[in-house]
Design a protein that fits this description.
heterodimer, A: 831 residues, alpha+beta, 5-stranded antiparallel sheet, 11 helices, 14% helix, elongated, B: 137 residues, mainly alpha, 5 helices, 77% helix, 0% strand, hormone (chain B), hormone activity (chain B), Somatotropin/Prolactin (chain B)
Amino acid sequence: MKQKLTSSVQIILLLALTAVGLTGQSYPGKPKIIRCRSLEKETFSCWWKPGSDGGLPTNYTLFYSKDSEEKIYECPDYRTSGPNSCYFDKTHTNPWTTYNITVMATNEIGINSSDPQYVDVTSIVQPDAPVNLSLETKTSASIMYLWARWSPPPLPDVSSNSHVYHYELRLKPEEKKEWETVSVGVQTQYKVIRLQAGVKYVVQVRCVLDLGEWSEWSSERRIQIPNGESPPEKPTITKCRSPEKETFTCWWKPGSDGGCPTNYTLLYSKEGEEQVYECPDYRTAGPNSCYFDKKHTSFWTIYNITVRATNEMGSNVSDPHYVDVTYIVQPDPPVNVTLELKKPINRKPYLVLTWSPPPLADVRSGWLTLEYELQLKPEEGEEWETIFVGQQTQYKMFSLNPGKKYIVQIHCKPDHHGSWSEWSSEKYIQIPPDFRVKDMVVWIVVGVLSSLVCLIMSWTMVLKGYRMIAFILPPVPGPKIKGIDTHLLETGKSEELLTALGCHGFPPTSDCEELLIEYLEVEDSEDQQLMPSHDNGHPSKHAKMISKETDSDSGRGSCDSPSLLSEKRRESRALPSTLQTQDIRDAEENKGGRRSWETQCIASEQKILLFNNESTKSSTWPAAQLPNNQPPMFAYHSTIDAHKITLSTTNVNIAPVLVGNEEKHQSQYPITETVHDNMEKEREMEYLHSKTDQTTVQVKQSRPNDKSPFLNPKLMDYVEVHKVRQDEETAVLLKHKENSGKTEKYTVPGTSKEYTKVSTVVDHNILVLIPDSRIQHTFVSQEPTMEMAQNLQQGQAEKNMGYCLPVPSECSRETSGSEYMDPSSFMPSFK
Amino acid sequence: CHTSGMLTPNGKEYAQKIPREELTHLILRLLQAWKEPLSHFNQHIEHHQELPDDSLSKAKQISNMVHELKTGVEKSMGIISNSLNGVASSEAAGLSISNEAHMMSDSDFIHCFRRDSNKVQSYLKVLKCRIMPENSC
């Protein structure tokens, strides 16, 4: 039985197969749903793709069911969405349901169905792309923009227009790859502003519903952006010039052309005429210019000139320019600049520069008269020297340096209104160097002679150097005290020395301090005080010293012997107390403001009175600065080794010795007055030997002072001597008796005299000073030194009258009148 | 300008074409036309306090110069006798012209004077080079 069945089946199968094989027909292939889409959430469509049709006409049917319902519906509309599609309209679409869709393909032979497709309407929403995209370029407020418009995607159901789409637009220049996307919103138009002119843009747009996906991009639209076109800007007329006062040209400067080709026209009218003309010649003078030839040029009339710029978008006119040709003449530079070197006989050669006026200028008829100007400078120089030449066309140059190279330029201008032309091209001048034989010979001779002289001098120096030096700079003589060995002096205290000098107990040993005298005040009423101010033994010593000054060999007076001076110039040197070597020194050299000046007496081999002049400080009188409130009459620092000036009571004129510096307003000197002089002596001073390195000044008083026998009893004035301690600056203040209250001037009205002349030296230790009327009260210059010198020589015929010349550099500050006279120089027995 | 009515050559060629006498007469007429207005102007500005003193003196100086120039031209051209007629007629014309001149403002006056003096200068130079060409012409 079974065998019969299987075989029958096999036969049937075979028959079927052969039938198939014979006819090529079979049941249809399986369709496939390719897509389901909703355009607007209210309808949707599905498309399928058929399989093979099996050779027979195939019918396709779509069946769907909703959610989990059992009921199966068939597609309501196969046509709307096109072939192989099914359109579900509103009534059949539920947004919130899931559709189970299958497609069945049926043909005569069999049926085949696709796989089921689950579709949720909300998830398949995708609108169509917008349509009707149109592009336009528009200009608004001179800004160019692109205006894009489109329509929303069409719907089969026209009625449903209430959908709100959101749009997106994208554009790019045609050649570029990057899109620029812009979100538009719900509008169906959009204006794009940032556009490049002259570029072709491609634009697309797409839309989306509130849910779902973006539609496809619409088809591309292209648009060409034109170059921004605008009317041109206003041109400006820059200048008008006439080169020869017969024609003229005007130039203008165009503004921006607004993107389009622009035309320029120049229009003018003349003064007094209404008619407007156009420029006769645009070309001759170049672009943007107008050339007026002779026919069109009138003088002494004002032209009203304007330029108009025109392009497709509009036109614009420049401001009017008024011009009168007479005033705008600017010639060309001169030409034919030539140089000629002329060498007249017996004179220095000179250069002649010639030129000619520019070719166009008609100077011959006098219509245009030119003036010229030169500009000259050496080649390496910085500044030009301008020379106005006038109307001539040549110039002679005399003052150029031979051998140098010069550059010269010329320019011209009309003699009346007008402007200077450009400078002509540079012309180089090379002056041939002028070697004068004579000059060279002179220089050679001079050189030879000077070298000879130098040789001779050096030879002499070598041979006799010492003597010459000695001749020029005489050495300061050493002390030559008879009976005293210089070595004794050098060794300091020495009994022998002292005894030789006749001093007792000098130098003081233990009572140095006592000897330091604060100050010496010498006043009439204080005669007695003066002496007591000295130390006990002092006066007597002084007296003794004074009286026993008998060494005739020594340099007496205020100047110490040179060796001593040199030794003891320092502040703290031991002072051999010799009368001769008495010095009034200023131990303190620098007291603020004090001046200790150094005067170097240049008296040939005389004793020199040395003052250390300290000029660094202000030259106010130390009095002012002394802590002690001395009436600052006179203060001086002197490093006079030994000088004692005593006044003699003899009938010799006693000239005061000016010891200190004299300020201009302090004419204070230590002056000793002569007895004979009944004039008011200003002051007198006596220099005491200082035991130590202090300056002691003994002031003579006008009243007789028995303690100081050397004081001039007749002296009317006194000097107040202020002596300061050693550690301070020693100063001696001399004060005029009369002006005891004063601290300033010493001026004695009328007969104030300065005793600056040393008339003689008495007793080898007394300096006689005389007043010198020639000497001004206030010395303000160095002159008085010379004066004094003269005076000295004038008066009593002193021998050996020397004078102390202050060392110029130092003493220049001094007011004169305060030089020390070297008393020693007046000592006849001196040397 | 009150002298605008005068027919004057406007360029070099015209100036060179005019015969000498006519040019001379023209120059003299111009100078004459300014004589009176200048003096009137001087009187006018004397009352101007704000002008500096040297302006006033300069104006006077210019009037004198114009007068001297006129005299000089007359003399050099030897036209003294001939110009009597011309002067008379130009005097008459000058009077009417000078009325016009009084109406001008100061700046216009100066502008016109500058122009006319330039004219006179140019004509004289042309004349000079015509008569005496060797002297820097």
